[in-house]
Design goal:
- By secondary structure, this protein is α+β, with helices and mostly antiparallel strands.
- The strands form five sheets. It has an eight-stranded antiparallel beta sheet. A five-stranded antiparallel beta sheet has the order 8-9-13-11-12, sandwiched between helices. The chain has a four-stranded mixed beta sheet with strand order 4-5-7-6, covered by helices on one side.
- The relative contact order is 0.12.
- Belongs to the oxygen-dependent FAD-linked oxidoreductase family.
């Protein structure tokens, strides 16, 4: 590894391991020992001075060869742990000059190699400061977890919270803003997506330029980066909305074994004043699907919810759970941390499938698709999830969602398949990827759905053009302007990088 002192003095990692440059012809980094042994290679390009670390050791590189899915594996040539935004800028500029692909890495919670690269991987968790926290906004580094921000905001007086939080909150701010950030545990009904609550960004473009952008300043970059899959810039800081937070959460759990009853009650609850958040789980064994609605109200201890009016007209008998706000917000994290500790979660293969459905077709979609699934299609540790989103609250051009229709709602559907163990049977991955391709084609062509691009769906550059639709020309123009040599985030394959 090279840090600033090691770079200047040769100390720390040992003189033989100190990187002093990059060999454009050989496509590899040059150590001091190699440079001394082969003076004819004196024309190598010198690595810029860094505040953080550039790691070339096998352990560092092996640690970032895959993502949550454990399907795609790609070993980078080097790993940057930046000590500053300047490090990100300097190394992107350097990599652009030498045509080295660059991928930022938060928690790598995608499942099909979207954040991998064979060149330089930047571990954004190295940048995780909260720079400012006020009553209505927070300025944070892109590598901070939403969990860390939620805890800090809730500790303020008066209490605050981000208006939209993903179900699993140990994800980085930069990572979820790059894909959209759905309201998995907070928000969604009347709060839009996480990208709808960004006031300003600091971005390192594919040319190495550090840019502050917003709706009014460099808006083309702002629009292209939020939900833009890392194609035009690396988010390094974000200024985000904060809103008041209640102290308590009451959740009503309602179970169903009938598609029509489930959707009837779901539509009542997402339109019911006083209900703050709704999501649903589903399972299927190829016969009758089962559903569980989670409907939550945030409140102060002195003013608990009135259960009767909130549940009027609902056919299922609820189970009621009362918790503190943060206990509720981190409930999915608690579950995942448990299976991580007991079931080897991080090593399991996860060929996830994630799409948007318009409100007009979602009931028919689940009624049709769930009949085709077997226990293998979800797995003992997997989950089927449904998240409602009021269309009028989504204000950003990306992520791409279904075309507007008669329904004011749209829904994210997740079939979060998890293999039973780390050693999958031969053909399992190919079978699940083929299933995802079939499901996506059906979702798009029969039901008007679009991709939520965190899952495992093989996509060609032509598929991506069709996916982005009328937004594609603006995204392509931003790519040409801000990443003209195409070095950023090749793993998505949006502009043809993927093999």
């Amino acid at each position: 590894m090279i840090g600033r002192r090691a770079f200047l003095t040769g100390a720390g990692a040992g003189a033989a391991a100190v990187v002093v440059g990059f060999d454009p012809l050989g496509g590899g980094w040059v150590t001091r020992a190699e440079a001394a042994a082969r003076p004819e290679r004196s024309s190598f390009a010198r690595v810029p001075e860094l505040d953080g670390e550039l790691a070339l050791d096998a352990a560092s590189r092996d640690a970032v060869t895959t993502d949550l899915g454990n399907i795609v594996h790609q070993r980078p040539r080097a790993v940057l742990r930046p000590g500053s935004v300047r490090d990100v800028s300097r190394m992107v500029r350097f990599c652009r000059e030498h045509r080295v692909p660059v991928a930022p890495r938060g928690q790598a919670h995608t499942t099909y190699g979207q954040g991998l690269a064979d060149g330089l991987v930047i571990e954004m968790r190295s940048l995780r400061r909260i720079h400012a926290l006020t009553a209505d906004r927070a300025e944070v580094d892109a590598g901070i977890h939403w969990m860390e921000l939620a805890k800090a905001a809730f500790a303020r007086t008066p209490r605050r919270t981000p208006p939209v939080l993903t179900g699993y909150t140990q994800l980085t701010v930069g990572g979820t803003l790059s894909v959209g950030g759905i309201g998995g545990i907070v928000g969604g009904l009347d709060s839009g997506l996480q990208v709808d609550h960004v006031r300003e960004l600091e971005v390192v473009t594919g040319t190495g330029e550090v840019v502050r952008c917003s709706r009014r300043r460099r808006s083309d970059l702002f629009d292209a980066v939020l939900g833009g899959l890392g194609q035009c810039g690396i988010i390094t800081k974000a200024v985000l909305d904060l809103v008041p937070a209640k102290e308590r959460a009451r959740t009503y759990l309602l179970g169903y074994d009938d598609n029509a009853r489930f959707f009837r009650d779901l539509r009542i609850l997402i339109e019911r004043p006083g209900i703050d958040h709704v999501y649903a789980e589903f399972t299927s064994a190829g016969t009758s699907p089962t559903y569980t609605i989670h409907a939550t109200v945030f409140h102060e201890p002195a003013a608990p919810p009135k259960d009767g009016p909130l549940l009027a007209g609902v056919s299922a008998t609820p189970e009621i759970q009362d918790t503190g706000y943060l206990e509720y917000v981190f409930s999915i994290d608690t579950l995942i941390d448990e299976v991580r500790a007991t079931q080897g979660w991080d090593r399991l293969v996860k060929p996830w499938f994630d799409v948007w459905l318009p409100g007009e077709t979602v009931e028919r979609y689940l009624g049709d698709v769930l009949k085709t699934l077997t226990p293998k299609d979800i797995g003992p540790l997997g989950a089927g999830l449904l998240y409602p989103q009021r269309r009028s609250e989504k204000g950003r051009p990306l992520p791409r969602v279904p075309e507007a229709g008669a329904s004011p709602w749209m829904f994210v559907i997740d079939i979060n398949t998890v293999a039973e163990g780390p050693d999958v049977e031969p053909g399992y991955v190919a079978e699940m990827l083929a299933r995802n391709e079939r499901l996506y084609a059906r979702t798009r062509d029969e039901y008007g759905g679009t991709l939520y691009p965190i899952g495992s769906v093989p996509m060609t550059a032509r598929d991506w053009r069709a996916h982005f639709g009328d937004v594609w020309p603006k995204l392509r123009a931003a790519k040409r302007r801000y990443d003209p040599d195409g070095v950023l985030t090749p793993g998505q394959g949006v502009f043809g990088h993927r093999d």
